Amino acid sequence: MDNTSALSLNSSVSGWHRLPWYQFEECAQAPHWFLLYFGVKVLNLVAGVPLNALVLWQILRKKSEGSTSDVFIFNLSILDAYFGLMTTVDLSNRLYFNDASVWYSVRFAYGLKDVTPLFLTCICLDRYIAVVHPILFTGIRDTRFRIGVSLLVWGLVLAYSLTKSFLGVMSVNEVFSGVILSAFFIMMFCNLSIIWVLRKSVAGKEVMNPVKKKAFKMVIIVLAIIVGNYLPPVALMPFASTYSFVTFRCKISLSVFSIMDLSCTIEPLLYISKMERSAFCRCLQSPSKKPITVRV
């Protein structure tokens, strides 16, 4: 029975009949995790890439009117769009070519995605300072400051990605755990602080200001997304060395990265949901409520 299974698996490794888990034959016992993982990747390619392209277009279109966080959102969308586009390269190489040189570029793309929480952390910090420390925020409102921070983050992102590309996945596993842990707790602190300040500002009042109410709801949504996308890696990845090969490479890592990769579609969708309908087309603009003059 074992020989038959091995034979059928080996025969599937030729041409287009390769299975997604062919790199690790041990993973043949748990193929459903690969189906989930690549299902998410296809979703990011089909939905995430166009959504991120729309975000990039909107930020460039209204660059003089955008928020201070748009610099970080712009960079985050570039990374997410690139990662989504690399799905075609990853799948074709995994299922057919198995070219060693292509794996370098695939691992590089994975490295970029691993540390995208750095830009998300910058967004949370920017909003935290704006709400909790408004006086300090006025002093660092200049876009050039955020461009400088973005360049610094890009340096860290590229260093991590190149290391993962050339030295392999396990070479940066501890760094990844540290980045995810740090980013998660910073983002949690920032968003909880914003919620506290917004709630405190309406203490004793019956109705919250509509603008603050909208901001409050948005922060709650962002917090839920952060917890949903990044709590699993925070809880599971630091203990990677304690798992067996099959448990880690065929189950845990795939489920964790599937959840994280969903952010490629969720984050631009959240940004677009905040936009006015008129930003897409003037025909969607709400009619102005002008008083009608009736002449007798």
User: How helix-rich are the residues, as a percent range?
Assistant: over 70%
| β-sheet strand percentage | under 5%
- In total, how many domains does the architecture comprise? 1
For this structure, what is the CATH class?
Mainly Alpha
The total count of strands amounts to 0
First-last Cα distance: 95 Å
Number of discrete helical segments: 11
* Shape, per Cα inertia axes: globular
Residue stretches low in confidence (pLDDT < 50, at least 5 long) are 1-14, 286-296
CATH topology: Rhopdopsin 7-helix transmembrane proteins
Radius of gyration: 23 Å
Order of helices and strands: HHHHHHHHHHH
Q: CATH-wise, what's the superfamily?
A: Rhodopsin 7-helix transmembrane proteins
Which oligomerization state do the chains in this entry correspond to? single chain
Q: Would you tell me the overall average pLDDT? A: 82
Return the CATH architecture: Up-down Bundle
Secondary structural class? mainly alpha
Largest beta sheet, briefly?
none
